[in-house]
């Protein structure tokens, strides 16, 4: 019988997932999705292949579970950081800073695009995790209008424009000593685009 990690079935499940996700994260950014194998993940995580297959029957289900876990953690972190600020201007600045900081920390995996590597249903599940993030941005933009921080505008147009601007790696693909300045330039750009010239000082996130 396989050894149960953590003393209970639920603790065992969490421990296995944590080990596997740590290995997958490293391998994604080192090798790319196409080069990953479940047997290689199991070996590096110190698990038997059968034990891993009991949790994730294939590479696709593993990747979807990993992205869902990462997204849930980030959405919680983003919501808490934004809601800690009472002023919509500071909320938007915090949103922009955190989005770019995370983009700088987590490089896209090398190799083929995930959209082409996954079945459409799996890719849709992954893409759906952007909804809470855009929802947070929408709420901040509407709050800013209500508070008179920037003029009324069509958020259905503005949200994808801001999202597209913050999704470009060119913004943060700079030497490490220039990253803070690049992020602050992006904060100023987004705030001015919305109609406010105020750029609040950054706080630890």
From TrEMBL:
Gene3D superfamilies: Tetracycline Repressor, domain 2. GO terms for molecular function: DNA-binding transcription factor activity; transcription cis-regulatory region binding. Keywords: DNA-binding, Transcription, Transcription regulation. PROSITE patterns: HTH_TETR_1 (PS01081), HTH_TETR_2 (PS50977). This is DNA-binding transcriptional regulator, AcrR family. Residues 14-74 form the HTH tetR-type domain. It comes from Amycolatopsis saalfeldensis. The keyword Nucleus does not apply. The lineage of its organism: Bacteria, Bacillati, Actinomycetota, Actinomycetes, Pseudonocardiales. Transmembrane segments: none annotated. Residues 37-56 bind DNA.
